[in-house]
Amino acid sequence: MDTNAVLDIGLQGLILAAKLSAPVLVTALVVGFAISLLQSITQIQEVTLSFVPKAIAVSLALLVSGHWMIAESVSFTRQMFEKIPSLLGGG
């Protein structure tokens, strides 16, 4: 196994991690920004006001994109298992 193969696998893993975390992070960012904007406009500084909507929105994002996330993870894992013979020099 050469250096290029290791770097390629690492890059694919990082891209997969970014793709899988994007829906949750973007949802939390958008909801957090909206809640903080609302809090600054109304001057209500309640901790639960920012946490509960974000938790609900992230849960919904996971519910909506969960199937896609699992399919991407399974596809990546399948590709890695298919590469094993060529990485060991057998194919």
Automatic annotation (TrEMBL):
Keywords assigned by UniProt? Bacterial flagellum, Cell membrane, Cell projection, Cilium, Flagellum, Membrane, Transmembrane, Transmembrane helix
Q: Does the keyword Membrane apply?
A: yes
Q: Where in the cell is it found?
A: Cell membrane; Bacterial flagellum basal body
A single GO CC term for this protein reads: bacterial-type flagellum basal body
Q: Do the record's keywords include Cell membrane?
A: yes
The cross-references to InterPro entries, in alphabetical order and at most eight, read: Bac_export_3, FliQ
Q: What is its main location?
A: membrane
Q: Tell me where on the tree of life, at the top rank, the source sits.
A: Bacteria
Q: Where are the transmembrane segments?
A: 20-39, 51-70
The cross-references to Pfam families, in alphabetical order and at most eight, read:
Bac_export_3
GO terms, biological process: bacterial-type flagellum assembly; protein secretion
Q: How does this protein lie in the membrane?
A: Multi-pass membrane protein
Function, as annotated: Role in flagellar biosynthesis.
Family statement: Belongs to the FliQ/MopD/SpaQ family.
What's the protein here called?
A: Flagellar biosynthetic protein FliQ
Name the gene that codes for it.
fliQ
